[in-house]
Write a structure and sequence with these properties.
single chain, about 300 residues, alpha+beta, Lambda Exonuclease, Chain A, 2 domains, two-stranded antiparallel ribbon, 11 helices, 7 strands, globular, binds iron/sulfur cluster
Length: about 300
């Protein structure tokens, strides 16, 4: 494999981190780069490990996504998919195993292989009932997927109409890659239908940007008009849906949003041509509340009291 190059790209997650805290953005996209390599500096290795931490809610959401993916991929392949009880049992077994691995700190030896929970790394004191509720929510989300309209629709979907299942994809804005990952996309006559599974609470603004990005991608990838794309967020907590259709003017608005966001990201770089960044150029979050749920608090100079090391 050739050398990996840290290229500037855009995704909704990247934009969210950028808006929450610039220093966190630095750690996530620059300060942890190369930390998978044993020859990296200890601080880069630590930043890489901390980047892998998931809060219990993110972890539950990830496990639900993986479970649904297994079911949907089996349906796409025309194979027998696990029934709801088998899928739920497998989900809960996986969560128990992850919990044990994380509580033993196995991720410190191999952060790529083992689940790393924020609550364990930062020794949050949580009652067992909180973890149980987290698992119950995950199970209920998965069971709701089996009850959803789209699950029933997929049972009869012709093979030729399946398009994407959680496939990492890109489209370009002015030569920069924009990353998207559609949980599901299929054709419905002359329309493209996209689904995004949501396990968290509805956040209208973030959801609007995300769904518009998916639509922008589908327009390019499948050569359809914006009006032919429906992007839907399915909230698995209660099976409510928010469907979004965009027009040409909204498409241009989202493209401009991404251009402006990329300009702001480039502005802070030491050398935009090389995508090179210096830590001190990235300010701390204005609101300290962000710090209490931040993966990088352990190495952030705001909290360690140390200055920024000359070399991260
Ligand atoms: S601890 Fe606070 S200031 Fe430091 S990176 Fe995290 S959110 Fe930003």
């Amino acid at each position: 494999m050739g050398m990996l190059e840290n290229k500037l790209s855009w995704s909704k997650t990247r934009d969210e981190v950028f808006r929450e805290c610039l220093r966190k953005y630095f750690f996530q996209y620059y300060g942890s780069w190369g930390g998978w390599d044993r020859s990296a500096t200890p601080r880069v290795r630590e930043a890489y490990l901390l980047k892998k931490l998931q809060t219990r809610q993110m972890w539950a959401g990830d496990k639900v996504h993986r479970s649904i993916r297994t079911v949907v991929e089996a349906m796409r392949a025309g194979e027998v998919h696990p029934d709801v009880d088998a899928a739920a049992a497998r989900l809960l077994d996986g969560m128990r195993q992850d919990y044990r691995d994380s509580s033993k700190g196995l991720y410190r030896g191999d952060p790529k292989r083992y689940c790393a929970l924020f609550e364990h790394e930062y020794q949050a004191t949580l009652l067992g009932e909180v973890w149980k509720e987290n698992a119950r929510n995950a199970e209920e989300s998965l069971r709701n997927f089996y009850r959803s309209e789209v699950f029933h629709k997929l049972q009869g979907l012709p093979k030729a109409d399946w398009l994407e299942v959680e496939q990492l994809a890109t489209f370009q804005i002015d030569g920069t890659d924009v990353y998207v990952q559609l949980d599901l996309a299929f054709r419905d006559r002359d329309r493209i239908v996209i689904y995004d599974w949501k396990t968290g609470k509805p956040d209208r603004d973030q959801s609007e940007i995300q769904l518009a990005c998916y639509a922008a991608y589908a327009v390019e990838k499948y050569g359809v008009t914006p009006e032919q794309v429906t992007a839907t967020a399915l909230y698995l907590a209660d099976n409510s849906e928010r469907a979004r259709t965009i027009d040409t003017s909204t498409l241009e608005t989202i493209r401009q949003y991404i251009r402006d966001s990329l300009d702001e990201m480039r502005f802070l770089l030491e050398d935009p041509d090389k995508n090179a960044a210096l830590e001190d150029a990235f300010d701390y979050a204005e609101d300290e509340a962000s710090c209490h749920r931040c993966n990088f608090k352990k190495i952030c100079p705001r909290w360690t009291g140390a200055g920024t090391p000359a070399s991260i």
